[in-house]
Amino acid sequence: MTASHSSHSQDRGHPPAPRLDAATDTFFAAPGSPPVEWHVLEGLTAYPDALAAMEARVGAIADGVAREAVVLLEHPPLYTAGTGARDGDLLDRRFPVFAAGRGGQYTYHGPGQRVAYVLLDLKRRRQDVRAFVAALEAWIIATLAEFHVAGERREDRVGVWVRRPERSPTPDGATAEDKIAAIGIRVRRWVTFHGISLNVDPDLSHFSGIVPCGIRGHGVTSLADLGILVSLPEADSLLRKNFEAVFGETAVAAPGA
Questions:
Q1: 182 is in an annotated binding site
Q2: Which ranges does the record mark as transmembrane (predicted)?
Q3: What digits encode the pLDDT tens for the residues 106-157?
Q4: Among 2, 1, 7, which Cα is nearest to 58's?
Q5: 195 is annotated as contributing to ligand binding
Q6: Which are the catalytic amino acids?
């Protein structure tokens, strides 16, 4: 998926810089900023409920009355359509389809997939959306490395990819590869929302109802598909550790926050 935002654009007449030039190791907040609230929701969260909560929190962060937050959750099986979704990429309406408002095209969410909604104030960090997306990718890649999985970025494809040399090459002779984590964001008043989804152990057959992120010719994988069996709490622990390395300190949110 691609990042979508309304507060940043390229100067006319100048081609965009290569995407991978936006690599970043850290994306810390300004000194004195409070820790990012870290929420982990139990059970399955309905997508409309999550979207409404994000919308409210983004407004509160932008108004300076709420802290930045990361919300980890699972959704029931569903498809979301980003602002660039094409009708032909919805192959089988087997699950509910929701308009997401984020960048990108169609994606799947469901049990066994860790979704992390990332609500950060770029005014107190860096007002650079491309660098923010690169920081999200760096976060996922560092987390995957904890499981000895080599995640990689691509110039023409946002998200994190894993090479699959055991499979037949692509028609152009390149090594086969699968997406293990998707990214789709939106930025409003310089506050980010939506975020990332990491495939821990979802039912990969559920992706067959869409062309994931509009990308044909590549597949989708998960930690379980790669032979790495971990629980969501184990994945969450490493996601938090590596988030802090890239974005800074977190604090567990108070109940009901």
A1: yes
A2: none
A3: 999 999 999 999 999 999 999 999 999 999 999 999 999 999 999 999 887 7
A4: 7
A5: yes
A6: 213
